[in-house]
Design brief:
The chain has helices spanning about 10-20, 30-45, 100-105, 125-130, 175-185, 235-255, 280-285, 290-295, 325-335, 395-410, 420-435, 445-460, 470-490, 510-520, 525-555, and strands at about 50-70, 70-75, 75-80, 90-95, 115-120, 135-140, 170-175, 195-215, 225-230, 265-270, 295-305, 360. It is an alpha/beta fold and about 550 residues long.
Length: about 550
Amino acid sequence: MAEAGLKPDRARLMAHIGEFARRVKLSGTAEELESFRYLQAEMDGFGYRTQLLTHDAFISLPRAATVEIDGENLRCITHSMSVSTSAPGVTGNLIHVGEGTEADFAGKDIAGKIVLVDGIATEEVAALASAFGALGELHISPNEHLYEMCVSPVWGSPSQHTRDRLPTTVICSIAKDDGGRLRERLARGEAVTATLFADVDTGWRKTPLLVAELQPKGDDAPFVLFSGHHDTWHFGVMDNGGANATMLEAARLLALCASEWRRGLRICFWSGHSHGRYSGSAWYADEYFDELDRRCAVHVNVDSTGGEGATVLTNSGVIDELRPLAADVIERVTGQKHAGKRHGRAADQSFWGIGIPSMFGSLSHQPAGPVKMLTALGWWWHTPHDTAEHIDPDNLCRDTAIVLEVLWRLLTLPVLPLDYTQYAASLDEQVGQLQAALAGRLDISGLAQAVEDLRVNANSLQQVRDPTPERAARIDASLMRAGRHLVPLNYTSGERFHPDSALPHVAWPSLEGLRALARLDEGSPDTAFYVVHARQTRNRIAHALREANAALRAALEN
């Protein structure tokens, strides 16, 4: 945005922070809706066309909890999507499972017990504890603070096919010192019994979703999706008030130069991120799938900007084909070299199945410290201490400047800055490893050639200079069509219309059928079975690459 001579207004940003510090914004509550109306009024004032939608979402709001051991009540909280108990609670013997990995659970008699886990509550541990028949989970915080978490392994609201994957355990967290004493008792061989009580309000409720857009090129033109959640744990002034301030200020400044845009801008503020496992963005992806498939060029998500002490700008998530854009902007604004971190399974990234390239989520992070945390967003993250005192106005201006510059380029460059040579290089590495491992069992040389064709085609597109507006539009359309086939290979199991779980995913999950055969011992009696699935996996990838290459070749035609 430097080209337009506009930069974030510190006073405006901090005025928004002051507004967001006024309310606790639990999903589906009256206070949250009141704050959404503030967002809508601001966006209306900037000249955007707004719509405040309401939809059904499966929301879980934790309330009271107790953890009783030997007649003593420990300071604790329960979690979103935990099982809710009756007044007596549930009682069971504790068993320590380390950090709660699959290896930590393996070989242990878990059924009917309460697992004691080192670390903040997660959906991974909830899924394992439920699968192993645990009665409950007691998580030990890495410090004295208790961190609010949603522990559902289901992405978005559950369907009749996924609701049985919700946790079946009662889940609470306690402070580091209390947990350490329990861990020491178990290590000495003592039998320790715990009683857990949890009151969790879980069920379907109406939640808001604000859509604001400017479409200077017409309502059928491609657009950039810019999003962030508005619901919070406690006051949530950094998470996600900082990002919401960034969104409002970026929207204001960009609208001043809308006549220079080549694409439209659609801004979405979600509910249900914190208490519904991304239920708002997941609903939007389902409800507007066809329009998003036809028109959405790129998704930029923003979360937790402006944090005190957040000096690291190298680790934000970005998809391969957008890495050059992220790296260039971050280095220009901050002087730091972006590492191009792979996206995790988080940050309202509900649009990969559609095939929409995405970038960011949390943008600025804390330097590494001695305490192992789930995120590098500050000790106050997901606690009652996430208040205005932990916003650094300079960091908020810096983060907003990054987001603003990224959006400016996405809106105004003649051709979308999607570099599929980066994608091809990443996939080539994966296919090369598999080709060596599968030699003699399955021929995937066709995939290797298709990836090379992708690299050549993408590189040729990178060399196109000063295209006419008509040709630039054709190139954009081809890049978007290619992405519909390529993005799901990189970030989904291959199913476009039903989201994968919220559990962590390996890189390139669509390749798992080939990896499974590669992992199988040669000579295994199961080889023929694995080859069937691996062949089907190969065919799906080959089809996606063929369609993507056809789209890129079409863009190269004059």
